[in-house]
Design goal:
Order of helices and strands: HHHHEEHHHHEHHHEHHHHHHH
Largest sheet: 2 strands, antiparallel
Strand content: under 5%
Number of strands: 4
Strand order of the largest sheet: 1-2
Radius of gyration: 23 Å
Helix content: 55-70%
Structural class: mainly alpha
Number of helices: 18
């Protein structure tokens, strides 16, 4: 019979404490370093290729291209509800499907370009270690959606909320191009506030969105998604957008089905805006005054890349440039920061930031730090530790990097 690890360690002369330290050294402290792996070149290349495949599948929606080809619903713009196209004119359906496929293919091409041209653009080596680490992390984060949608209490609460939303009267009903514009603006308004508040409240930042910003050499394929458990998926705009978007959509109803060919135009615009963490697209933006001019309206890749900057003067309100597709809300609420004429250093504002390259520590680090903060401080400080502003530091600080 196989012995448990502790008994095995004791029988082999290794104390359980030393055994635990060795396990910690491997799973917690030791970071992924592909260059130090004693593996054949073919295996290393295969590992990198698999990580790139997974990252492109996550961020360019490459995994769903088969669904796109047979889809009855099309997503045209960020934070706008998917559109049932089964009753549309066949020619328009074909154009929408083709544009959706183009969005996926373009996203894949941009991700590959970031890998190939990163050193030429930035003068630094591409971070293959981070890409492999984040491919593993993102797979695990995707699985966290199960904790939301298999929770009967949460689903029951969501049903009650939806029932309440349905009772809200419609004040304005729009059609055609006006409906498309209104739906896009409302969706982006809700995302703006969801995104901004998750930068301001400790709970959503510490356990959710900080993961997305823990990337020092940012590209389209070296970014972590937020945990997909509903409350922590702040980058997806789900937390506060859940409270804002459904009531606003009910008050200002938009019949997108009458948008016609304007839907194709909107989808093509979204195709360029979607790879918003790309160094390649930022570089092209710097070289084209026409692309830079579009920042007046749209969150171009350079605008969102600046949101990830760790340079202090860009920290307007626990960050900057919180909109997903339009710069309107950032300009209106004074959080817009014009991208600099160079690609800024990305990451966390803290000088002691830990850009973790081991999956277990990357995922568990925020929870361990929060637990130690609660354990080391009196009960009266717990509300602020959990739900205070992100700038708050408890009386007894935890000696642990961000």
């Amino acid at each position: 019979m196989n012995e448990d690890p502790v008994s095995e360690a004791r029988n082999s002369g290794i104390s359980p404490r030393l055994f635990a330290q060795r396990i910690k050294a491997v799973l917690w402290d030791k970071e992924i370093a592909i260059s130090r792996l004693r593996l054949p070149v073919v295996l290393v290349a295969s590992l990198i290729g698999l990580a790139l495949f997974l990252e492109l599948g996550f961020h360019a929606q490459g995994f769903y291209i088969g669904d796109v080809l047979s889809a009855k619903q099309i997503s045209t713009f960020a934070n706008v509800a998917s559109l049932n196209i089964s009753s549309f004119d066949p020619v328009l359906v074909g154009a929408l499907v083709a544009a959706t496929v183009l969005r996926v293919v373009f996203g894949i091409a941009v991700g590959i370009a970031d890998v190939v041209f990163y050193k030429r653009i930035t003068g630094q080596d591409f971070d293959y270690d981070a890409m492999v680490n984040l491919a593993i992390v993102n797979m695990i984060f995707l699985l966290t959606a199960i904790f939301t949608f298999m929770n009967p209490w949460f689903m029951a609460l969501l049903e009650h909320y939806q029932t309440w939303v349905e009772r809200i009267p419609t004040v304005v009903e729009t059609h055609g191009v006006v409906a498309i514009a209104l739906a896009c603006l409302i969706g982006d308004f809700c995302f703006y506030w969801s995104h901004r508040w998750c930068h301001k409240l400790r709970f959503f930042w510490t356990l959710g969105h900080i993961n997305h910003h823990r990337s020092h050499k940012l590209t389209q394929v070296t970014q972590a998604m937020d945990p997909q458990a509903f409350l922590l998926d702040t980058a997806g705009g789900k937390v506060f957008a859940l409270l804002l978007l459904p009531p606003l959509v009910k008050l200002f109803a938009s019949d997108l089905s009458t948008g016609g060919w304007a839907l194709v135009a909107v989808l093509l615009i979204d195709t360029w805006l979607n790879p918003s963490h790309s160094t390649t697209l930022y570089y092209l933006e710097l070289r084209s005054r026409y692309l830079r001019a579009l920042r007046l309206i749209f969150v171009m890749p350079g605008v969102h890349f600046t949101h990830h900057s760790r340079e202090a003067h860009m920290n307007i309100s626990d960050g900057c440039n919180f909109g997903a597709r339009f710069t309107l809300w950032d300009r209106l609420f004074k959080t817009y920061c014009e991208p600099p004429p160079y690609i800024p250093e990305a990451g966390l504002f803290s000088e002691n930031a830990d850009y973790i390259r081991t999956p277990l520590r990357f995922i568990a680090h925020p929870y361990v730090k929060l637990y130690l903060e609660l354990k080391g401080n009196r009960l009266g400080h717990w509300p602020k530790i959990m739900f205070g502003p992100t700038s708050y530091n408890p009386p007894n600080k935890v000696n642990m990097e961000s």
